[in-house]
DNA sequence: GAAATATGTTAGTCTTGCTTAACTTTGTTA
DNA sequence: TAACAAAGTTAAGCAAGACTAACATATTTC
């Protein structure tokens, strides 16, 4: 079996996700970048990197750059996918402010079961699909009811 | 000011919620009941009770029963309300199994911002309202699309 | 290329929340 | 009522994750 079931803590998932984001943004990732982005101090990052490296999810040479392993990359993408889906749900469907949507997505992206996140994904797809093609009355009603533009 | 902004941890919110449930079910609440319900050992409960008592959220005499204070009762009800709303959303709208719905609700009930949970509450109300009065076509489509009855 | 600055790591501490083992108190029952 | 069982508490310890202070390595810059 290629990938043994890593049961990562929410915290470690957050670190992985941020590493993936920084890699996308800047190409390379350093302790300092992570520390700034996550509002933690550098020693906390070092400790987290040791933990992730010991699980084979990142590669990290002392004083050097940090990179995701294949396995780590895969996990990070899964988390990010849930995160983005949740953000879309909160913003596009519920009309929550970007700020709250991001914050809430960050917190619950680690807790949803596979079953629930898949079904929620379907809901988002369905609603966005219909929202795109001249919104039917019921979606307008819904948005008004929820108070999207209050 | 009557109630200073208690920023409770997710764990402490769980204890409060369980105390409220047990009080409803049995009338009185003991350490043993909480320990059984939450799958933790009794010393963990004792520690948690000391913490909640020091915050004025419960009353607890040594070797005696546990009861919610007015403030604790209020908080517990708020958590339970979010919990129930989430469970309904997962089950009634998404068609998630009761088991996953309960588990997921338990985990994220502590993390949602006020803004998001209020709007989600509105969504649930809106959809349930329309589901009740001979479900319109779009709701059927939605449920099929999500795969509610797969 | 040496000094100054930026970045990274180590060591030690704190908090939260859990555990086990041992002890105390309360309740039951013969 | 004495003894046993059930429930509660205390003490000690562990693990995750965060922090500060101090030290080590890289990178700039003059």
Report on this structure.
Two copies of one chain form a homodimer. Chain A has 150 residues and is mainly alpha-helical. The first copy, chain A, has two domains: 10-74, Arc Repressor Mutant, subunit A (Orthogonal Bundle), CATH 1.10.10; 80-146, Diphtheria Toxin Repressor, domain 2 (Orthogonal Bundle). The first copy, chain A, contains seven helices and two strands; from the N terminus they run αααββαααα. Chain A has a two-stranded antiparallel ribbon. The longest helix of chain A has 24 residues, at 70-93. Chain A is elongated and about 60 Å long. The termini of chain A are far apart. The interface between A and B is medium-sized, with 33 and 33 residues. Chain A binds a DNA duplex (30 and 30 nucleotides) through residues 9, 11, 30-32, 40-48, 51, 62-64.
Structural domain count of chain A: 2
Cα end-to-end separation of chain A: 52 Å
What series of H and E elements makes up the topology of chain A? HHHEEHHHH
Query: SS-based structural class of chain A?
Result: mainly alpha
Spatial order of strands in the largest sheet of chain A: 1-2
Unreliable spans of chain A: none
Key attributes of the depicted protein:
7 helices, 150 residues, homodimer, mainly alpha, DNA-binding, two-stranded antiparallel ribbon, Arc Repressor Mutant, subunit A, 2 strands, Diphtheria Toxin Repressor, domain 2
